[in-house]
Amino acid sequence: MDYAHFDTSAGERKSPAAQFNVPALSPALAALRKSAFSRLIPTADDETLCFLLAQVSALRPSSILELGTATGISGIAMLQAAPSAVLDTVERDERFYAEAVSNFGAAGLSHRVNAHLGDAAEFIAENRAAYDLIFMDCAKVQYVKYLPRLVELLNVGGVLIADDVLLFGYVSGETPVPPKRAALVRHMREFLDALRADGRLVTSVLNIGDGVSFSVKKNN
Ligand SMILES: C[S@@+](CC[C@H](N)C(=O)[O-])C[C@H]1O[C@@H](n2cnc3c(N)ncnc32)[C@H](O)[C@@H]1O
Fold it and tell me: Which stretches of the chain drop beneath a pLDDT of 50?
C-alpha cells in the first residue's frame, strides 16, 4: 500500500542522547512500529517516544487528545503507559484512520479510544472535552493556529506536547532553510513565540528527536 505521507526519520535531527533512548514496547507494538517504518508510515522516533512515554507515566492522565493518529502507534503506546486513560485521536487520512481503528482493536484498546476521521481544526473547534494531556503531531504549519483552542481544552496542570518543533534543524538555525520550507519554518517559530508569550503556560522546548515542546497549563 502506498501512502501520501512518508516517514521522514532519515532526515530528522538526532540529539547525542538518542543512542540511549530506546522505548520499551510490548512485542506486538514493536512489531507494528517496525512494519510502519518499513512501509514509510510516519510515527514518532525512538527518542520522542521515550520522552512521551516517560511523561505519560509521570502524569498518569485520565484523558488524552492526540492530533495526528497515523496508524495508532503513539496512541497505543500512550494507552499502554497510562492504564486508566481514554484517548481521543484525530486523523484526516482515511487509510491511516482505518488501519488505526484495526490496530486499536487488535491491541484490545477499542473501549478506551475514540478515533475520529477528519480535520483536527474542526475537531478541536467543536469539542467541549477537557484533557490532561494533548499530543500534537499533525500538520506542523497549523500548530500556531491550533494553540489558543488547545490551551482552552487543557485542564489546569495539563500538558501540551508538540512534536517536530525544530523541524530538521531549520527552526533552530542548525540547517539552512530551503525556500520551499520557509513558510513552515516561519509558522513554527511563531508557534514557539506564542508558547513563550502565553501567560497561562510554562514551557520548555527540548532538543529531543526533531524537537519537542512541553507546556504545562498553570493555575491562573
Ligand atoms: C507524524 S504523523 C502522526 C504519527 C503518530 N502520532 C505516531 O507517532 O504514531 C502525522 C499525522 O497527522 C495527520 N494529519 C496532518 N494534518 C492533519 C489535520 N489537519 N487533521 C488531522 N490529521 C492530520 C497525517 O495524515 C499524519 O497521519
Answer: 1-10
Pocket test for ligand 1, best of 79, 92, 135 (most atoms within 8 A of CB): 92
d(CA 69, CA 89): 6
pLDDT tens figures, 26-40: 999 999 999 999 999
| Ligand 1 pocket residue status of 70, Cβ below 6 Å | yes
Residues 6+ apart with CB under 8 A from 31: none
- Pairwise CA distance, residues 79 & 1, whole Å: 27
Burial status of residue 186 (CB atoms within 10 A of its CB: 0-12, 13-18, 19 or more): middle
What pTM was estimated for this model as a whole?
A: 0.95
Sketch out the chain's domains with CATH numbers. Answer: 9-217 (3.40.50.150)
Q: Is the CB of 206 under 6 A from ligand 1?
A: no
151 neighbors 104 (Cβ within 8 angstroms): no
Alpha carbon distance 163, 102 (integer Å)? 24
